[in-house]
Amino acid sequence: MEKEINAVNKKIKRVDRADDVLSWILRLLLIAILAFAISFLYDAYRPDDKSAVYHNGDTWITMTGTNIDYPVVRGKDNFEYLDKDPQGNFYAGGSIFLDYRNKSDFSDSYNVVYGHNMAGGKMFADLKKYYEQDFFDEHPGGMLFTPKQNYALKVIGIYKADAYASGVYGYTSVNRVLLESISKCKPIRSINLTGPGEAGKKILALSTCSSSMDDSRDVLFCTMTKTDKEYADIE
User: Fold this and answer.
1) What pLDDT, on the 0 to 100 scale, is given for residue 63?
2) Spatial distance between the Cα atoms of 183 and 227, rounded to a whole number of angstroms
3) 3-state DSSP: the chain helix, strand, coil percent, rounded to 5?
4) How many CB atoms neighbour CB 140 within 10 A?
5) What CA–CA distance (Å, rounded) separates 214 from 109?
6) Where would I find the H helices in 46-89?
7) Per-residue pLDDT reduced to its tens digit, 38-52
8) Do residues 217 and 208 touch, judged by C-beta distance below 8 A?
9) Which pTM value belongs to this model?
10) Where are the alpha helices (DSSP H) in 133-175?
C-alpha cells in the first residue's frame, strides 16, 4: 500500500511540475503579447524621427521631458475625438485635439489643445509635472509641427482652471482677460507678452482634467514662435 501511495505522490509531483512549466510558458507568452502590443501602439503614436513630415504630414506636438509626443487632430466639435484615435477608430484614451473653433492651421493668435489625463503618464497626464518648480525650470518648452509651419513652444506657466473658465476657453485671439488668467499661473516665467519683443506672440494652451471628481483643469500656456527647426531643443 505504501508503494502505491508513493507512486501516486510521484505522479502528482510530476503533474504539478508540468503545471508549473505550463504556467510559466503562458506567463512568458502573455508578456510577449503585451510587449508587442505596447511596441505597436508606441510606433503608431510616435514619429519615426524628428523630421518635418509626420505620418502623411499630420500635425504633431512634443514637449521635452514628458510623454507628450502625439499627433494633433481637430473634429467637428470638442466631443468627436474624446473616444477616438486619430484614424477615427474607438479608443478609450481618445486623441490630442485642437479646439474646433480654432483654425486647423494654428493661424489664430490663441489656440487650445485638449487631451485626457491618463494613467501611466499617457496623453496629457504629464502636464501636472509643470507644477513642480524644478521640472518647470529644467523643461522650458517643446515643438509643434504642422504641414506648413513649425513652432517652438516656450512654457509660460501652468494654471488650475474651471472647465467653464471664461478667461481660458472660448477664445481664438489673445486678449486682456486671457492675459489676466496667464498672470495667475504658478509657477510662471518672467515674460511680458505685451512688452517690447513679446508683442504679438501667439499662445498655445494645453488643457487636461485635473481630477475625475470635479471640473478643474490643468492648463499649460506656451508661446508659439515660428521656426525652421525640426526637433525640440528649446532652451
Assistant:
1) 93
2) 26
3) 30, 25, 45
4) 17
5) 30
6) none
7) 444 444 444 444 433
8) yes
9) 0.72
10) 133-138
